[in-house]
Amino acid sequence: MVKGFLSLRNVEYIVKNVSTDLEGRAELLAMGFDSTPVVVIGDHQLPGFDAEAIDHALASLE
Q1: Residues in CB range of 51: below 8 A, 6 or more apart
Q2: For residues 51 and 48, what is the distance between their CA atoms, to the nearest angstrom?
Q3: DSSP states of 3-61 as a string?
Q4: If we measure between CA atoms, which residue out of 62, 4, 23 comes closest to residue 39?
Q5: Most exposed: 15, 46, 52, 58, by fewest CB within 10 Å?
Q6: How far apart are CA 61 and CA 42, in angstroms?
C-alpha cells in the first residue's frame, strides 16, 4: 500500500526487507519500531500507512 501510494506521487523510495536484511532490521529497531511499514521522509518516521502524514512529510521537503 505504501509503495503504491508513493509511486502514484512519483516519489523514489528504498525498500528494506527486515526479514532478510539484518542491517535494515537493526535500523528499524534503533528507531524504536518492531513492525513494518515504517516510512522515513526527512526527519519524519511514520509507522503504518497514513496518507495524510506521508503527504505532510513530503510537503515539508519542498
Answers
A1: 5
A2: 10
A3: HHHHHHTT-------TTT-HHHHHHHHHTT--SS-EEEETTEEEES--HHHHHHHHHHT
A4: 4
A5: 52
A6: 7
- Report phi then psi at 44, rounded to 5: -90, 130
Q: What is the pLDDT of residues 24-55, one digit of tens each?
A: 999 999 999 999 999 999 999 999 999 999 99
- CA 21 vs. chain centroid, Å, equals 15
Q: Are 18 and 28 in contact, with CB atoms under 8 Å apart?
A: yes
Instruction: Provide the 3-class DSSP secondary structure of residue 2.
Output: helix
- Here the cell at position 20 is 532478510
